Amino acid sequence: MRSPNILVFDCGAAHLSGGVFAVEKNGGLRLASHASETLFADSADETSWGVAVGEAVTRIMGRLDYEGRECVITVPGHLALTKFVKTPAVERSKRDRIVQFEASQNIPYPLNEVAWDYAEVADDGVDVELMLSAVKRDALDELCSVFQQAGLTVTRIEPAGLACVRAWRAAPGRNQESSLVVDVGAKSTQLLFVARDNFFMRTLPFGGNLATQLLAKKLSCEIDEAETLKRELSTGRGPDDSGRQDLIDEAVMEFTARLQAELTRSIFSYSRHTEAESPKEIVLMGGGSRLPELNRRIAESTALPARSLDLTADLDLRSASGGV
Predict the structure, then answer these.
(1) Which of 17, 29, 225, 298 is least enclosed, having the fewest CB within 10 Å?
(2) pLDDT of 25-51, one tens digit each?
(3) Dihedrals φ, ψ of 169, to 5°?
(4) pLDDT digit string (tens) for 155-185?
């Protein structure tokens, strides 16, 4: 049965979030209900992750007010390959053929082994900037089958980074010129340079799991124990054993230093190679961004104001309609 509402699942490496959006008369969206589940799975085992997603979908559906059978999903950064390319601004009837060629040159897999598409980033009448995105077909088929087993049909799939760009552009009070949105996930971190008329995305091959691994190594404990401790730190609770605090601080500092270095390098490269305006602020989001003192340290190293954003708490999603 087709529902007048839209069901969206954000598939992360460590969390699954589901939201039901009501479509208003003006075409805007209103977040009607929302639920999130932690995924307890081996991050290196995609099969284990898929099983955890399926179990979480069932639990979330029991908490959402949704009668339909269709859903939209996002694909996390560690599964989705993204490339930015420029092509001549030709008439649209010829554009698909040019994009097909660019995809064959920039996607490092045979095109019949991936599901891919593109989004227009900017068009100045001379060149068109495109974002290509691809996911291995077998991984995507497995993910879609998980939702099918839960009684849902996936009707649209979007890279999580692109969905984040759309959400950020709906944020009240956002910087209208240029911002760097840093989405720190479990297995990857996405750097989203969002300007007034275009955007750029880079995916770092590490996320909050790196902090967990560093904690486990420093404390000589199991990964599960380190993950629990990291989540306690993210909520402002520290360890009862003060003797472990120095080791914990060392682990957090090592994670922060690596993220700081990548941010500094990426900001310089973005400004130099795209000739775009440097970002005016850094906005941190995602579970891995909640580590203590991360905002302050990022601000000090980049000389830019840094703040945190909780999308479900801070966005007026009634304005989240429209394209990229």
Answers:
(1) 225
(2) 887 788 899 999 999 876 566 778 989
(3) -70, -10
(4) 999 999 999 998 888 776 676 678 999 999 9
